[in-house]
Design goal:
This protein is α/β, with parallel strands linked by helices. Helix content is 46%, strand content 9%. It has 14 helices and six strands. The protein has a six-stranded mixed beta sheet. The chain is elongated. The termini are far apart.
Length: 390
Amino acid sequence: MPHADFVHLRVHSAYSLSEGAIKIKALVELAKTSAMPAVAITDSGNLFGALEFALTAEAAGIQPIVGCQLAVRREDHEVKAGAGAPKPDQLVLLVKDAAGYRALLKLVSKAFLESPTGEVPQVTLADIAAQSEGLIALTGGAGGAVGRLLAEGQGPAAEAMLLALARIFPDRLYVELQRHGLPVEGRIESALLDLAYKHDVPLVATNEAYFADDGMYEAHDALICIAEGAYVSEPDRRRLTPEHRFKSAAEMRALFADIPEAIDNTLTIARRCAFYPKAEKPILPPFPVETGRDENAELDAQAGEGLERRLAAQVFMRDMDEPRRAAAARPYRERLRYELDMIGQMGFAGYFLIVADFIKWAKSQGIPVGPGRGSGAGSVVAWSLTITDL
Protein backbone atom coordinates (compact mmCIF):
# COMPACT_ATOMS: atom_id res chain seq x y z
CA MET A 1 0.00 0.00 0.00
CA PRO A 2 1.54 3.40 -1.00
CA HIS A 3 2.04 5.84 1.81
CA ALA A 4 0.78 9.42 1.99
CA ASP A 5 2.92 12.18 0.49
CA PHE A 6 2.91 14.37 3.60
CA VAL A 7 3.74 13.86 7.26
CA HIS A 8 2.87 16.02 10.24
CA LEU A 9 5.90 17.61 11.88
CA ARG A 10 4.05 19.85 14.37
CA VAL A 11 1.77 17.87 16.69
CA HIS A 12 0.97 18.80 20.28
CA SER A 13 0.04 15.65 22.13
CA ALA A 14 -1.78 15.58 25.45
CA TYR A 15 1.68 16.00 27.01
CA SER A 16 1.52 19.65 25.96
CA LEU A 17 -0.21 20.10 29.28
CA SER A 18 -3.52 22.00 29.21
CA GLU A 19 -2.85 22.74 25.55
CA GLY A 20 -2.71 19.58 23.43
CA ALA A 21 -5.65 17.19 23.26
CA ILE A 22 -4.36 14.24 21.24
CA LYS A 23 -3.36 11.19 23.26
CA ILE A 24 -0.37 9.18 22.07
CA LYS A 25 -2.32 6.10 20.98
CA ALA A 26 -4.85 8.27 19.16
CA LEU A 27 -2.05 10.17 17.42
CA VAL A 28 -0.44 6.99 16.13
CA GLU A 29 -3.82 5.71 14.99
CA LEU A 30 -4.46 8.98 13.15
CA ALA A 31 -1.15 8.64 11.31
CA LYS A 32 -1.84 5.00 10.50
CA THR A 33 -5.37 5.71 9.25
CA SER A 34 -3.98 8.55 7.12
CA ALA A 35 -1.31 6.20 5.66
CA MET A 36 1.43 8.56 6.85
CA PRO A 37 4.77 6.76 7.07
CA ALA A 38 5.95 8.96 9.92
CA VAL A 39 4.71 11.55 12.40
CA ALA A 40 6.36 13.91 14.87
CA ILE A 41 5.44 15.18 18.30
CA THR A 42 6.61 18.67 19.20
CA ASP A 43 5.16 19.25 22.62
CA SER A 44 5.55 22.63 24.26
CA GLY A 45 8.78 22.72 26.23
CA ASN A 46 8.95 19.07 27.24
CA LEU A 47 9.75 15.51 26.19
CA PHE A 48 7.37 13.84 28.62
CA GLY A 49 5.76 11.71 25.91
CA ALA A 50 8.86 10.91 23.87
CA LEU A 51 9.42 7.31 24.97
CA GLU A 52 5.73 6.34 25.03
CA PHE A 53 5.28 7.89 21.60
CA ALA A 54 8.35 6.17 20.13
CA LEU A 55 7.37 2.73 21.42
CA THR A 56 3.72 3.07 20.36
CA ALA A 57 4.56 4.36 16.88
CA GLU A 58 7.23 1.72 16.27
CA ALA A 59 4.81 -1.05 17.26
CA ALA A 60 2.29 0.30 14.75
CA GLY A 61 4.82 0.48 11.91
CA ILE A 62 4.97 4.28 11.98
CA GLN A 63 8.32 6.08 12.09
CA PRO A 64 8.39 8.24 15.24
CA ILE A 65 10.02 11.66 14.99
CA VAL A 66 10.80 13.12 18.40
CA GLY A 67 10.86 16.89 18.70
CA CYS A 68 10.03 19.80 20.93
CA GLN A 69 8.71 23.32 20.60
CA LEU A 70 11.23 25.21 22.70
CA ALA A 71 10.64 28.64 24.19
CA VAL A 72 13.55 30.95 23.31
CA ARG A 73 14.33 34.00 25.43
CA ARG A 74 14.01 37.32 23.60
CA GLU A 75 17.22 39.25 23.88
CA ASP A 76 16.19 42.09 21.54
CA HIS A 77 13.79 43.52 24.13
CA GLU A 78 14.69 45.84 26.97
CA VAL A 79 12.74 44.79 30.04
CA LYS A 80 11.23 47.76 31.83
CA ALA A 81 10.95 47.82 35.60
CA GLY A 82 7.82 46.01 36.72
CA ALA A 83 6.89 45.01 33.17
CA GLY A 84 8.21 41.45 33.36
CA ALA A 85 9.94 39.48 30.65
CA PRO A 86 8.36 39.49 27.17
CA LYS A 87 6.72 36.39 25.78
CA PRO A 88 9.47 34.12 24.45
CA ASP A 89 9.76 33.14 20.81
CA GLN A 90 9.38 29.55 19.74
CA LEU A 91 11.74 27.30 17.84
CA VAL A 92 10.95 23.75 16.78
CA LEU A 93 13.73 21.20 17.07
CA LEU A 94 13.51 17.69 15.62
CA VAL A 95 15.84 14.84 16.55
CA LYS A 96 17.99 13.73 13.64
CA ASP A 97 20.28 11.24 15.42
CA ALA A 98 21.43 10.05 18.85
CA ALA A 99 23.54 13.17 19.39
CA GLY A 100 20.48 15.29 18.66
CA TYR A 101 18.40 13.43 21.21
CA ARG A 102 21.03 13.99 23.90
CA ALA A 103 21.27 17.65 22.93
CA LEU A 104 17.51 18.13 23.12
CA LEU A 105 17.39 16.45 26.54
CA LYS A 106 20.01 18.91 27.77
CA LEU A 107 18.16 21.92 26.36
CA VAL A 108 14.81 20.93 27.86
CA SER A 109 16.43 20.21 31.23
CA LYS A 110 18.25 23.55 31.18
CA ALA A 111 14.99 25.37 30.44
CA PHE A 112 13.26 23.83 33.44
CA LEU A 113 16.17 24.05 35.86
CA GLU A 114 17.54 27.50 35.10
CA SER A 115 14.55 29.66 34.17
CA PRO A 116 13.52 32.10 36.93
CA THR A 117 10.48 31.17 38.97
CA GLY A 118 7.29 32.38 37.34
CA GLU A 119 8.70 32.42 33.81
CA VAL A 120 7.92 29.99 31.04
CA PRO A 121 10.84 27.50 30.97
CA GLN A 122 13.08 28.84 28.23
CA VAL A 123 16.60 28.85 26.84
CA THR A 124 18.72 31.41 25.05
CA LEU A 125 19.88 31.27 21.47
CA ALA A 126 23.41 30.81 22.83
CA ASP A 127 22.23 27.74 24.75
CA ILE A 128 20.81 26.31 21.54
CA ALA A 129 23.99 27.07 19.61
CA ALA A 130 25.95 25.09 22.20
CA GLN A 131 23.64 22.09 21.83
CA SER A 132 22.68 22.05 18.15
CA GLU A 133 24.45 18.93 16.93
CA GLY A 134 22.11 16.31 15.49
CA LEU A 135 19.05 18.59 15.51
CA ILE A 136 16.92 19.91 12.64
CA ALA A 137 15.32 23.30 13.26
CA LEU A 138 12.04 24.76 11.96
CA THR A 139 11.71 28.52 12.31
CA GLY A 140 8.45 28.32 14.24
CA GLY A 141 6.01 30.06 11.92
CA ALA A 142 4.44 33.27 13.15
CA GLY A 143 5.40 32.36 16.71
CA GLY A 144 9.08 32.11 15.90
CA ALA A 145 11.58 34.93 16.12
CA VAL A 146 11.79 35.39 12.35
CA GLY A 147 8.01 35.48 11.97
CA ARG A 148 7.53 37.82 14.92
CA LEU A 149 10.11 40.29 13.67
CA LEU A 150 8.50 40.32 10.22
CA ALA A 151 5.09 40.91 11.78
CA GLU A 152 6.56 43.85 13.69
CA GLY A 153 7.92 45.35 10.48
CA GLN A 154 11.54 44.64 11.41
CA GLY A 155 12.67 43.11 8.12
CA PRO A 156 16.45 43.56 8.59
CA ALA A 157 16.29 42.08 12.11
CA ALA A 158 14.26 39.13 10.80
CA GLU A 159 16.86 38.51 8.10
CA ALA A 160 19.66 38.70 10.65
CA MET A 161 17.85 36.20 12.86
CA LEU A 162 17.38 33.79 9.96
CA LEU A 163 21.08 34.01 9.14
CA ALA A 164 21.98 33.43 12.79
CA LEU A 165 19.83 30.29 12.84
CA ALA A 166 21.36 29.13 9.56
CA ARG A 167 24.83 29.40 11.11
CA ILE A 168 23.72 27.38 14.13
CA PHE A 169 22.00 24.75 11.97
CA PRO A 170 24.00 24.51 8.72
CA ASP A 171 21.96 22.51 6.19
CA ARG A 172 19.52 21.71 9.02
CA LEU A 173 17.25 24.77 9.02
CA TYR A 174 13.84 25.05 7.36
CA VAL A 175 11.63 28.11 6.98
CA GLU A 176 8.26 27.05 8.32
CA LEU A 177 5.06 28.03 6.52
CA GLN A 178 1.66 27.71 8.18
CA ARG A 179 -1.88 28.47 7.00
CA HIS A 180 -4.29 28.16 9.89
CA GLY A 181 -6.34 31.17 8.86
CA LEU A 182 -4.64 33.53 11.29
CA PRO A 183 -4.22 37.07 9.86
CA VAL A 184 -0.56 37.28 10.90
CA GLU A 185 0.32 34.23 8.83
CA GLY A 186 -0.93 35.91 5.66
CA ARG A 187 0.90 39.14 6.46
CA ILE A 188 4.32 37.56 6.80
CA GLU A 189 4.20 34.71 4.25
CA SER A 190 5.48 36.69 1.30
CA ALA A 191 8.39 38.02 3.32
CA LEU A 192 9.19 34.53 4.62
CA LEU A 193 9.29 33.22 1.07
CA ASP A 194 11.56 36.06 -0.03
CA LEU A 195 14.00 35.39 2.81
CA ALA A 196 14.00 31.66 2.19
CA TYR A 197 14.73 32.00 -1.52
CA LYS A 198 17.26 34.79 -1.03
CA HIS A 199 19.35 32.75 1.40
CA ASP A 200 18.63 29.31 -0.05
CA VAL A 201 16.94 28.01 3.09
CA PRO A 202 14.42 25.26 2.24
CA LEU A 203 10.72 25.65 3.00
CA VAL A 204 8.50 23.25 4.92
CA ALA A 205 4.74 23.34 5.35
CA THR A 206 3.35 22.40 8.74
CA ASN A 207 -0.02 22.34 10.40
CA GLU A 208 0.16 22.76 14.16
CA ALA A 209 -2.24 20.06 15.33
CA TYR A 210 -3.65 20.43 18.83
CA PHE A 211 -6.74 18.24 18.38
CA ALA A 212 -7.84 15.42 16.09
CA ASP A 213 -10.77 16.82 14.09
CA ASP A 214 -13.38 19.60 13.73
CA GLY A 215 -15.61 18.03 16.34
CA MET A 216 -13.01 18.66 19.03
CA TYR A 217 -12.55 22.36 18.32
CA GLU A 218 -15.04 23.78 20.84
CA ALA A 219 -13.94 21.41 23.60
CA HIS A 220 -10.32 22.34 22.93
CA ASP A 221 -11.20 26.03 22.99
CA ALA A 222 -12.66 25.48 26.46
CA LEU A 223 -9.45 23.69 27.47
CA ILE A 224 -7.41 26.74 26.46
CA CYS A 225 -9.70 28.96 28.53
CA ILE A 226 -9.33 26.71 31.57
CA ALA A 227 -5.55 26.74 31.20
CA GLU A 228 -5.41 30.53 31.01
CA GLY A 229 -8.15 31.34 33.51
CA ALA A 230 -10.26 33.02 30.83
CA TYR A 231 -13.91 32.87 29.73
CA VAL A 232 -15.01 31.64 26.31
CA SER A 233 -16.86 34.93 25.79
CA GLU A 234 -13.78 37.11 26.35
CA PRO A 235 -12.69 38.84 23.13
CA ASP A 236 -9.01 39.33 23.97
CA ARG A 237 -7.77 35.87 24.79
CA ARG A 238 -5.75 33.16 23.12
CA ARG A 239 -7.69 31.55 20.29
CA LEU A 240 -6.86 28.82 17.84
CA THR A 241 -8.91 27.97 14.75
CA PRO A 242 -10.64 24.83 13.51
CA GLU A 243 -7.65 24.50 11.17
CA HIS A 244 -5.42 23.47 14.10
CA ARG A 245 -6.48 19.87 13.62
CA PHE A 246 -4.76 16.74 12.33
CA LYS A 247 -5.31 17.27 8.61
CA SER A 248 -4.99 14.60 5.94
CA ALA A 249 -2.19 14.60 3.38
CA ALA A 250 -4.71 15.49 0.67
CA GLU A 251 -5.89 18.52 2.65
CA MET A 252 -2.33 19.72 3.12
CA ARG A 253 -1.48 19.18 -0.56
CA ALA A 254 -4.52 21.25 -1.55
CA LEU A 255 -3.71 23.94 1.02
CA PHE A 256 -0.17 24.37 -0.30
CA ALA A 257 -0.82 23.54 -3.94
CA ASP A 258 1.08 26.71 -4.92
CA ILE A 259 4.21 25.63 -2.99
CA PRO A 260 4.47 21.84 -3.45
CA GLU A 261 8.13 21.83 -2.41
CA ALA A 262 7.09 22.81 1.12
CA ILE A 263 4.95 19.66 1.33
CA ASP A 264 7.64 17.48 -0.28
CA ASN A 265 10.13 18.60 2.35
CA THR A 266 8.08 17.04 5.14
CA LEU A 267 9.06 13.67 3.69
CA THR A 268 12.66 14.81 3.26
CA ILE A 269 12.83 15.76 6.93
CA ALA A 270 11.22 12.47 7.96
CA ARG A 271 13.92 10.56 6.07
CA ARG A 272 16.62 12.58 7.86
CA CYS A 273 15.24 11.82 11.33
CA ALA A 274 16.50 8.29 11.87
CA PHE A 275 16.68 8.10 15.68
CA TYR A 276 14.13 7.58 18.42
CA PRO A 277 14.47 6.42 22.06
CA LYS A 278 13.94 2.79 22.97
CA ALA A 279 13.11 1.11 26.25
CA GLU A 280 16.12 0.23 28.39
CA LYS A 281 16.51 -1.47 31.71
CA PRO A 282 17.23 0.93 34.59
CA ILE A 283 20.93 1.74 34.92
CA LEU A 284 21.81 2.39 38.56
CA PRO A 285 25.14 3.79 39.72
CA PRO A 286 27.22 1.35 41.79
CA PHE A 287 26.81 1.86 45.52
CA PRO A 288 30.13 2.34 47.37
CA VAL A 289 30.63 -0.56 49.79
CA GLU A 290 33.29 -1.67 52.25
CA THR A 291 36.25 -3.63 50.91
CA GLY A 292 35.39 -7.24 50.25
CA ARG A 293 31.63 -6.75 50.14
CA ASP A 294 29.34 -6.70 47.14
CA GLU A 295 26.04 -4.82 47.16
CA ASN A 296 24.08 -7.86 48.37
CA ALA A 297 26.42 -8.30 51.35
CA GLU A 298 26.27 -4.56 52.11
CA LEU A 299 22.47 -4.61 52.07
CA ASP A 300 22.45 -7.68 54.34
CA ALA A 301 24.73 -5.90 56.81
CA GLN A 302 22.86 -2.57 56.83
CA ALA A 303 19.44 -4.18 57.02
CA GLY A 304 20.51 -6.62 59.75
CA GLU A 305 21.99 -3.88 61.91
CA GLY A 306 18.99 -1.65 61.26
CA LEU A 307 16.53 -4.37 62.24
CA GLU A 308 18.25 -4.93 65.57
CA ARG A 309 17.97 -1.21 66.32
CA ARG A 310 14.28 -1.24 65.35
CA LEU A 311 13.61 -4.29 67.54
CA ALA A 312 15.32 -2.72 70.53
CA ALA A 313 13.47 0.56 70.15
CA GLN A 314 10.02 -0.56 69.04
CA VAL A 315 9.41 -4.27 69.67
CA PHE A 316 11.22 -5.43 72.80
CA MET A 317 9.60 -4.58 76.13
CA ARG A 318 11.60 -3.84 79.27
CA ASP A 319 10.24 -6.85 81.18
CA MET A 320 11.05 -9.34 78.36
CA ASP A 321 13.61 -12.04 79.14
CA GLU A 322 15.90 -13.43 76.44
CA PRO A 323 13.61 -16.30 75.31
CA ARG A 324 10.65 -13.93 74.94
CA ARG A 325 12.79 -11.45 73.00
CA ALA A 326 13.96 -14.22 70.68
CA ALA A 327 10.36 -15.30 70.11
CA ALA A 328 9.24 -11.74 69.39
CA ALA A 329 12.13 -11.15 67.01
CA ARG A 330 11.83 -14.44 65.10
CA PRO A 331 9.11 -13.41 62.59
CA TYR A 332 10.93 -10.15 61.85
CA ARG A 333 14.26 -11.90 61.25
CA GLU A 334 12.65 -14.61 59.14
CA ARG A 335 10.82 -12.02 57.08
CA LEU A 336 14.01 -9.99 56.68
CA ARG A 337 15.91 -13.04 55.39
CA TYR A 338 13.11 -13.87 52.94
CA GLU A 339 13.05 -10.31 51.57
CA LEU A 340 16.84 -10.04 51.32
CA ASP A 341 17.00 -13.29 49.35
CA MET A 342 14.29 -12.10 46.97
CA ILE A 343 15.90 -8.65 46.53
CA GLY A 344 19.24 -10.30 45.79
CA GLN A 345 17.70 -12.63 43.18
CA MET A 346 16.08 -9.67 41.42
CA GLY A 347 19.26 -7.58 41.44
CA PHE A 348 17.72 -4.74 43.44
CA ALA A 349 20.20 -4.55 46.33
CA GLY A 350 21.84 -1.41 44.93
CA TYR A 351 18.45 0.23 44.44
CA PHE A 352 17.52 -0.25 48.12
CA LEU A 353 20.91 1.05 49.25
CA ILE A 354 20.62 4.17 47.07
CA VAL A 355 17.07 4.95 48.23
CA ALA A 356 18.08 4.47 51.86
CA ASP A 357 21.04 6.80 51.35
CA PHE A 358 18.74 9.52 49.95
CA ILE A 359 16.24 9.14 52.80
CA LYS A 360 18.86 9.15 55.55
CA TRP A 361 20.51 12.27 54.12
CA ALA A 362 17.17 14.08 53.81
CA LYS A 363 16.29 13.30 57.42
CA SER A 364 19.72 14.45 58.60
CA GLN A 365 19.14 17.80 56.84
CA GLY A 366 15.72 18.32 58.40
CA ILE A 367 13.90 17.72 55.11
CA PRO A 368 10.45 16.17 55.71
CA VAL A 369 10.12 12.58 54.51
CA GLY A 370 6.87 10.64 54.54
CA PRO A 371 6.54 7.52 56.74
CA GLY A 372 5.79 5.30 53.74
CA ARG A 373 2.74 4.25 51.77
CA GLY A 374 1.51 1.47 49.51
CA SER A 375 2.92 -2.04 49.44
CA GLY A 376 6.45 -0.78 50.08
CA ALA A 377 5.47 0.15 53.63
CA GLY A 378 5.04 -3.57 54.35
CA SER A 379 8.71 -4.30 53.72
CA VAL A 380 10.87 -5.18 56.73
CA VAL A 381 13.99 -4.32 54.71
CA ALA A 382 12.66 -0.81 53.98
CA TRP A 383 11.72 -0.43 57.67
CA SER A 384 15.13 -1.63 58.83
CA LEU A 385 16.90 0.80 56.49
CA THR A 386 14.64 3.67 57.76
CA ILE A 387 13.21 4.16 54.24
CA THR A 388 9.81 3.74 55.93
CA ASP A 389 8.78 4.35 59.53
CA LEU A 390 5.47 2.50 59.88
